[in-house]
Specification:
single chain; mainly alpha; disordered N terminus
């Protein structure tokens, strides 16, 4: 059976087969075009700095900011071809996407509206625009429209012409598979449940059978499997696994059996309990999540531990880092269907520069406010526009201006928007490089990755491109036995 694809979070349906395209040709809604044949093209001109992912990263396909030939924003899809002549008031070759609509634009703008060519306005009845790579949503603009006679605040869209349809919220991103408690899966898993019991019954354990059943099971079926096992055998499958196997192999199987939502809750509690904070684990779970997934995580955490996630985060963090994570936990970032409006991207780029390189000492909360509240598509556009305008990658600016946990978190926010596949490839390598292996983090990261087969294929391609070797071979060189077999089965 199949499940509807999510529009955010961990994007493609958990357990879907890997795509046929190679790395650099992502499924819709994830990345902007990276080159004609996949992967990243060599950088064209300055900047000379080597950035995240590979030399010249992110890809430089755009000329300096304001040049007429290209623009740093994802192109908008849909609509009809633009008119042959530029809109009234626009430069000869506007760097913004052309106006869309079913009819030629009027020669004069509507009364009270700004000249055409400054932003993307739609005529009444014209087909609505959509951001690059997104399914056609019922978009109503970036944020809410101010009332008549009110001044639009920073980051708000321009007012629509008189008589245009009323604007409202963009379509919310649905929960990822495994994060919606209302989702009901009608599937008979008595066969897999019996196979698990047979593998653990009597003397000895058939570890290969355990791996075969669990390693590739889709996220929505995990809860059904555990319920079926309990009903048919009057036993807990998790308790049986704990009694039959051990070590990091046991940790891997239990991480699968928790399912993606409860695994996030487990990892958050592990990151926050005891002395100190596991900052990497906290970042892994909370950064780059959709509003729907974040709300599901908070609700499940409260239900599991009978205290709020916000209170536990506040108890572990302090000062401005605590406030940054409160912004994340508010679950109010732009939805994936929110459009990329060049005017707003320009304003964000200018504000980020003013709050970092444009002053002595970073204005931390201004930077946090922007990066925690924008969608991945908007963050990608901001990062590309920043580098095009100021000739330095935004990630390098954050590394230079910040430090400690806040630096790590902000860098992960940018990487989540620019290229999630490369972000996850680098995080996997971080668990294996140097002396020894960070086995626990390796298990957690492979488990989180494996729920989305399309994304897994993208990460393997990114790993190959950056490190010149296959991810599977890299894992084989670090671990062994049933632990190794389980990790490889999850990503193959």
């Amino acid at each position: 059976m199949s499940y509807p694809p999510p529009q955010g979070g961990y994007q493609q349906p958990y357990g879907a087969p890997p795509p046929q395209q190679g790395y650099g040709q992502p499924p819709p809604g994830q990345y902007p075009p990276q080159g004609a044949q996949g992967g990243y093209p060599p950088p064209q001109g300055p900047p000379s700095q080597q950035g995240y992912g590979q030399p010249g990263y992110p890809p430089q396909q755009q000329p300096p900011y304001g040049a007429p030939s290209q623009n740093p924003y994802p192109q908008q899809q849909g609509g009809y071809p633009p008119p042959q002549q530029p809109p009234y008031g626009a430069p000869a070759h506007s760097p913004y996407p052309p106006q869309q609509g079913g009819y030629p634009p009027p020669q004069q703008p509507p009364y009270g509206a700004p000249p055409q060519g400054q932003y993307q306005q739609q005529q009444y009845g014209a087909p609505q625009q959509q951001p690059y790579g997104q399914q056609p949503p019922p978009q109503q603009g970036y944020g809410q429209q101010p009332g008549y006679g009110q001044q639009a605040g920073y980051g708000a869209p321009p007012q629509a012409p008189y008589g245009a349809p009323p604007q409202g919220h963009t379509a919310p991103t649905p929960p990822s598979p495994g994060y919606d408690a209302r989702q009901v899966i009608n599937v008979d898993l008595s066969g897999p449940a019996d196979a698990l019991r047979k593998a653990m019954k009597g003397m000895g354990t058939n570890e290969g059978a355990l791996i075969g059943v669990l390693a590739r099971m889709p996220a929505p079926e995990i809860a059904v499997l555990k319920q079926t096992y309990q009903q048919r055998h009057r036993r807990s499958v998790e308790s049986d696994v704990e009694s039959e196997v051990g070590g990091y192999f046991e940790l891997a199987l239990l991480s699968i059996l928790r399912g993606p939502l409860q695994q996030d809750v487990y990892c958050l509690n592990k990151a926050l309990k005891g002395a100190g904070t596991n900052e990497d684990l906290l970042n892994d779970v909370l950064i780059g999540r959709s509003n729907a997934d974040m709300r599901a995580i908070k609700e499940a955490y409260q239900k599991t531990y009978h205290r709020s996630l916000e209170s536990d985060v506040k108890a572990d963090l302090s000062a401005k880092t605590e406030r940054m994570f409160m912004m994340l936990l508010a679950a109010t970032r732009a939805e994936d269907s929110a459009p990329v409006i060049p005017q707003n991207i320009d304003a964000d780029v200018s504000e980020l520069h003013r709050a970092t390189e444009g002053r002595t000492g970073a204005e931390q909360l201004s930077v946090c406010s922007i990066l925690t509240s924008r969608s991945d598509t908007q963050v990608r556009a901001i990062a590309h526009a920043y580098e095009a305008k100021y000739r330095i990658p935004l990630e390098k600016v954050l590394i230079k201006e910040f430090g400690g946990h806040m630096e790590d978190a902000l860098v992960q926010m940018v990487r989540s928007g620019v290229d999630r596949a490369m972000r996850d490839a680098v995080k996997l390598e971080d668990t294996m490089k140097g002396p020894g292996t960070k086995d626990e983090m390796l298990v957690f990261r492979v488990t989180a990755l494996h729920w989305d087969r399309n994304h897994t294929a993208q990460v393997k391609g990114a790993f190959r491109r950056k490190y010149g070797k296959e991810l599977t071979n890299r894992i084989k060189g670090e671990v062994s036995g049933n632990y190794e077999k389980c990790l490889l089965a999850m990503i193959e």
